[in-house]
Each structure stands twice: as structure tokens, then as C-alpha cells.
């Protein structure tokens, strides 16, 4: 009976659907990666042994490499999304242009990031890898900025829609609830983008943030992304 209860439990089925997706596995690895980044910094500051710190630095590095390899080829998805956003009609032009900018930013990031895989894996070392990685961070940062601006713009539009729905002659409770749900999604995405903003900004030297702070920021955005991926496979 206990075996059957485990085998046919809805949560187990949900978990299997979740880990069957690439994004689900990536978000799990990302959360662990940034937790290891935070923990290695924290343990170092607390004076723990170099061996203990090395363990978490190794986890961070190995999971980072694993995710980098998993991302190869994903740039096509974002370039395709950018093309679709350009062709999309009946959408607010500002929202459309911001969407195109976001997708091109992420596509450029993944393109240059893929060019560093052989160097990062130690298969073939080349001096240009550092330059490619820096360009990858610049494109990632650009994509995040477009996403943040898009989120703020969408939230402002959402406030106007909510205000109109509440002031309607016959207020629609269903419509207001729907807008509140969309607002919650936008707020979570904005929080995730702001957290992610810290990562390439720090790597490029635009913000002076320590590894502990960057690790926490990465954990926040990773958890939000993991929760979203989990809900999509419900």
C-alpha cells in the first residue's frame, strides 16, 4: 500500500513532468549554483577552512559549466521569439519593441556564451574567450534592462486597467481579480529581473557587489524561475 501511495501520488507525477523539462532541471541547478556561491563567500568570511570553501567553489564552478553546456543552441529560440514579436500585430508598439529588445539581448548573450564553452570546459583554450564572455554579459544586461522597462511599463498600464474596471458602471469582480493575478505575475518577473541585473552588472564591474550579495540575488531569481517552471508543469 505504501509503495502504491508513493507511485501514484499526484506530486510524484508532477515532479516527473517537472524534471523532464530542460528549464526545470536548469532552474534547480541554478538555485544550487548560486546558493553555493553565497555559501562559499559566507564560509570564507566566517573563517572556515580553505577545504570547506573549496568544496562549495567547486560546486559553483561545475554547475555553472553544466548549465553553460545545456544552454548551447538556445539562442535560436530567442532570435525566433524576437522575429515573432516584430510580426505581432494588435500589440502596443512600445511593448512590442521592448519585447524585441529583450529577446535580442538574451539571444546575443547565449550566442557569445556558447563561444566560451570549449575554453570553459578546458577542451581548447583561447584568449578571445574572455572577450566573448564580456560581450555575453553585456547582451544579458541589455536584455534584462529591456525586461525591467517592459515590466514597469506593463504595471503602469495594469494600474490604469484596474482603475477603469473598478470605476465601471457595473464593476466586474472577475475582471479585477484577473488583473490582480496578472499584476502579481508582473511583480514577480520584475523582482526576478532586478535580482538578475546584479549578476552581469557585477561581472562587468558596473556595480561593486561581493559574491555573497550576487549569490543571494541569483538565489532569488532562481527560486522565482523554479516556481514558475513548477507551476507550468502542474
TrEMBL record:
Q: Which domain of life is it from?
A: Eukaryota
Kindly list the places in or outside the cell where this protein is found, as annotated in its UniProt entry.
Answer: Peroxisome membrane
- Primary localization class, coarse: membrane
Report TM segments.
135-155
Q: Which GO BP annotation is one of this protein's? A: peroxisome fission
Which InterPro entries does this chain map to? PEX11
Keywords, A to Z? Membrane, Peroxisome, Peroxisome biogenesis, Transmembrane, Transmembrane helix
Q: Name one GO cellular component term.
A: peroxisomal membrane
Instruction: Decide whether keyword Membrane is in the record.
Output: yes
Give yes or no: UniProt keyword Iron: no
Q: What is this protein called?
A: Peroxisomal biogenesis factor 11
Q: Which organism is it from?
A: Ascobolus immersus RN42
